[in-house]
Amino acid sequence: MSTESEITVVQGGRVIDPASGVDGIRSVVIREGKIASVAERADAPAGARIVDARGKWVTPGFVDLHVHLREPGQEYKETVATGTRAAVAGGFTSVCAMPNTVPANDNTSVTELMLARAAAAGLARVYPVGAASKGRKGEDLAEYGELKAAGCVALSDDGSPVMSPALMRRALEYSRAFGLPLAVHEEDLHLVGKGVMNEGPTATRLGLQGIPAQAEDVMVLRDLSLLELTGGRLHICHVSTAGAVRAIRDAKRRGLPVTAEATPHHLTLTDQDVAASDYDPDFKMNPPLRSEADVKAVREGIVDGTLDAIATDHAPHSPEEKTLEFDAALNGILGLETAFPVCLDLVRQGILTERRLVEALTISAARCFSLPGGTLAVGAAADLAILDPGLAWVVDPVRGHSRSRNTPWKGKRLTGRCVETLVGGRRVHRLEDSR
Amino acid sequence: MNAEGVQRAVQRISHEVLERARAEGSLEGLALVGIRRGGVPLAERIRAEIGRASGVTPPLGTLDIALYRDDLSHRGAAPVVGPTDVRFPLEGRTIVLADDVLYTGRTIRAALDELVDFGRPRRVWLAVLVDRGGRELPIAADFTGARFDVPEGHDVQVRWRENGAAEDSVVVREGGKP
Amino acid sequence: MIGRHRHLIGLEPFCREEILEVLDLAISMKEVLSRPVKKVPSLRGKSVVNLFFETSTRTRSSFEIAAKVLSADALNWTAAQSSTTKGETLLDTARNLEAMRPDVLVVRHSASGAPGFLARNLGCSVVSAGDGAHEHPSQGLLDCFTLRERFGSLEGRTVAIVGDISHSRVARSDLHALPKLGAKVRLCGPPTMIPQGVEQMGATVHHDLKTAVEGADAVIMLRIQHERIGDPLIPNTREYSKYWGLNARKAAEWLKPETVILHPGPINRGVELSSDVADGPNSLILDQVQNGVAVRMAILYLLAGGAGEGARAGKV
Questions:
Q1: Does residue B49 lie within any of the structural domains?
Q2: Which stretches within A305-424 are classed as H helix?
Q3: Where, residue-wise, is CATH 2.30.40.10 in chain A?
Q4: Which of C152, C143, C219, C151 has its CA nearest to residue C185?
Q5: How many C-beta neighbours within 10 Å does residue B87 have?
Q6: B134 in a domain, yes or no?
Q7: From the list C83, C133, C134, which residue is nearest A324 (CB)?
Q8: Neighbors of chain C with 3 or more C-beta pairs under 8 Å
Q9: Is residue B87 part of a domain?
Q10: What is the ipTM of this complex?
Q11: Which of A261, B116, C37, C165 has its CA 20 to 30 Å from the CA of residue A73?
């Protein structure tokens, strides 16, 4: 077990740190849990722990802006401990935990509970996201000051949209007092209706009720328009449609303070995968998998920076909630342990550069919520991911670290895996140890 | 058996049926029912011959026994079902059931079960072109064209011109099952 | 169908030959229904369980009669809507039933994909009697049978399907089968009732009833639900009936003398179809019902009539 007073040298790996513009073979020296130096050569002092990273990538630990840790209240699906274990296994050293817990995180107690659990687990750093409205009911503002003081880094009613434009306006305005970004889950519930998958020819063929892309677009357009009125910081969660990407690109061009994220599945899967899976509820999530044109636009959005970050929307559910007929199954899939190889595939296809991939998972994400981390700059906390981009493995949900198993990549062969993770210089994950 | 032999056998059967029907006074109530597919040409020819010889042409029906087989659970796939066509009432009639080859007797058992679901004939006679022995049920033919003792593991095939053969023949080959 | 399929979940995976196989067999089955003794021993000792999560007297009875004519034992199991937090899940219900070793499970459910889900998780053969808006394969087959009986062949024929296509599993099954038999399909309804991308399934779309049915050889009218709460697709049935309903006057003016009328039932008389057309000389609606039993007999025979224990164990 490494301790913070040790000196660790991570040698021989390809360090990719977009925040400081580094991409090449470097040695990273860690002292007292912080980055001491990143240089082409480093002499390892006596007693230093050497980590051999030859053939691997060394990046800042990934920052996930959007995970559901399910604690308090739904520990049967996941806990802070199991969720952060899955996170570090996937190379994520910081995760933002959404407030749709039971009870909702609209108060100090729940925030403090999450932080206490995270500290006890001692794995990934957890940054709670507080609710935007009391109980996430979309009626009254939550206490943003309290939430910030307790440790929340952003506000969201995620899982639910804020249907009332009036409340959304006030939320944006009030959040300005505390400098907290408002992370929004965009869907107009009236347009969604009883829909369970993307509306289109595939839904027609499968006989499933469809959710039109416009259900997301109208809300994105609404909230960007409100942002013009109110100012503040708007962050659009899990962008999935071409219309939304277009609107965000336009808004940024006009200088509006908006950031956005996309999930690995919205970058790589389409509604046709629902059909191909034969109604498998592990392909059911919200927003749903969209059309090829939408996926293309989301990819372009990540490439050109319209969409700042990749965030997993890791949403564990128990088998009782997923092994049902499609209509009845809950929305959501796991994402922490598969994000890297799934997105790396886009690099292999020439759609994304390695630099941009790492950037979207690290510094760009951190900046959305003004989080520390996402960088290997000297003096930064030594949160690192050591990744083997060529390691092939078969996804076995039973052996994953999450308490749940709902992943569409079950049984699939993926290439790329995190082999070691350090948080504050401590090793919190090593692939061989967890086999 | 060659074509000539088949024709002679058919003629003999037809006249035997006619004689017996006359003797028992049931010529008017006679009807022929051929079991698909091999028994149908036999039934047609007997019918034509009786018509020629007596001036009275009995009605003709065809029976497909697929739905009445006793071995459905043992076969891999459900057997193909062909059309059954019995348009005349059976009550009071003497039905001459016709099949090309009599072997285990199971086909005839199935045919009898099916026939009885159409009505209650006065009596049923069985006419076969070839009796090859190997009975598994107590079934006997009333009119037989020829008797061959064919060992197991051999197939007896009757080829009829009506079913597409170049000429009539009865062929014994290795292989095949009942 | 033989060998290749253990289940009948939909007509989408069936090729033309397989569809014709079922239709040809149904001819023999229909003949059995015309006999004085309407019973054949083919499925004696086999059991057919009807697991209906949506009430339906006609389809269920049709399958029940079909099973009984084939001498199978038929059991009806009506379950309340499954997979609620209060009730048993769909899988639990089906597993409980499977413990009684049925040979065929006939399932109707409001969730698309439910029969397929059961087929993957159970050992017996599964026949879909309708799932959500996905498919109603036995209805599709009996529609084809009825039309083929009337026209001899469907090659080059035009069939118009009128109604709430977006929610219709019958329309989808018809759409999978009819083109494979050579027919052209026209779909008709108000724009709110035509689902996205349905042209890709091989049909042309019309919003005007007249252009949809003119020159068609057959018109299949679908039932319009009186109300669909929360997401109204039409203002009311009165307006629907005026623009998309079929009555004697429209039939006389727009249809050919030999155009036939079909409806999967139950009919909302006066809404999509007037009584005089429903009961008129060109209506094949009652033939559909009769043919339904024959077609379902053919389906049950093909799925349960062959493989016994040994053969079943070897199949996927």
A1: yes
A2: 319-322, 339-348, 354-361, 363-368
A3: 7-58+380-434
A4: C219
A5: 8
A6: yes
A7: C83
A8: A, B
A9: yes
A10: 0.85
A11: A261
Examine the pLDDT at C156 and tell me if it is beyond 90: yes
Domain of residue B147, CATH code: 3.40.50.2020
CB contacts < 8 A (B, C): 63
Residues 107 through 126 of chain B touching chain C, CB cutoff 8 Å: 113-114, 117-119
**Cβ contacts of B69 on chain C, cutoff 8 Å:** 42
Contacts of A200 in chain C (CB under 8 A): 196-197
Q: Residue A253 corresponds to which tokens in the numbers above?
A: 């061009």
Q: Which residue has the tokens 């507080």?
A: A130
* Contact (Cβ atoms closer than 8 angstroms) between residue A279 and residue A326: yes
Q: Give, for C160, the enclosing helix (H) or strand (E).
A: strand C158-162
- Kindly list the distances between the CA atom of residue C166 and the CA atoms of A43, A328, B123, C264, in Å, as whole numbers in the listed order: 70, 20, 60, 16
Residue limits of CATH 3.20.20.140 in chain A: 61-368
Tokens of A376: 């290997």
Number of domains comprising chain B: 1
Residue A274, min C-alpha distance to chain C (Å): 11
Q: For this structure, is A188 an active site residue?
A: no
On whether any CB of chain A is under 8 Å from the CB of C197, the answer is yes
Q: How confident is the model at residue C313 (pLDDT cuts 50, 70, 90)?
A: very low
Q: Which residue of B has its CA nearest to C304?
A: B78
Give the pLDDT of residue A91. 98
pLDDT digits (tens, 9 = 90+) for A121-152: 999 999 999 999 999 999 999 999 999 999 99
Q: Which two tokens stand for residue A331?
A: 């929305």
> Two tokens at B56?
């009275």
B68 touches C: beta carbon within 8 Å? yes
DSSP summary character for residue C225: P
| CATH architecture type of domain A61-368 | Alpha-Beta Barrel (3.20)
Smallest CA–CA distance, residue A268 to chain C, in Å, is 22
C180 and C153 in contact (C-beta within 8 Å)?
no
What distance in Å separates the CA atoms of residue C20 and residue C15, rounded to the nearest whole number?
Answer: 9
In terms of residue numbers, what domain contains B124?
3-71+83-151
User: Do C200 and A206 count as a contact with CB atoms less than 8 A apart?
Assistant: no
Q: Of how many residues is chain C composed?
A: 316
C-alpha distances out from residue C76 to A26, C103, C112, Å: 72, 14, 21
pLDDT tens string A54-75: 999 999 999 999 999 999 999 9
Which of C113, C120, C201 is closest, CB to CB, to A326?
C113
In order of start, what are the domains of chain C with their CATH numbers? Answer: 16-136+290-314 (3.40.50.1370), 137-289 (3.40.50.1370)
pLDDT for B144 equals 94
| Chain A neighbors of C172, CB-CB under 8 A | 205, 207
Does the distance separating the beta carbons of A202 and C114 come in below 8 Å? Answer: no
What are the beta bridge partners of residue B61?
B33
Within-domain flag for B178? no
Distance CA B7, CA B1 (A): 10
Question: What are B3's two structure tokens?
Answer: 């074509």
Catalytic residue among A64, A313, A383, A388, which? A313
Strands (E), A18-124: 22-31, 34-39, 49-52, 57-60, 62-67, 92-97
H helix or E strand, kind and range, residue A235: strand A234-236
Q: Do A and C touch, counting CB pairs below 8 Å (3 needed)?
A: yes
d(Cα A140, Cα A137) in Å, to the nearest integer? Answer: 8
Classified by CATH at the fold level, domain A7-58+380-434 comes out as Urease, subunit C; domain 1 (2.30.40)
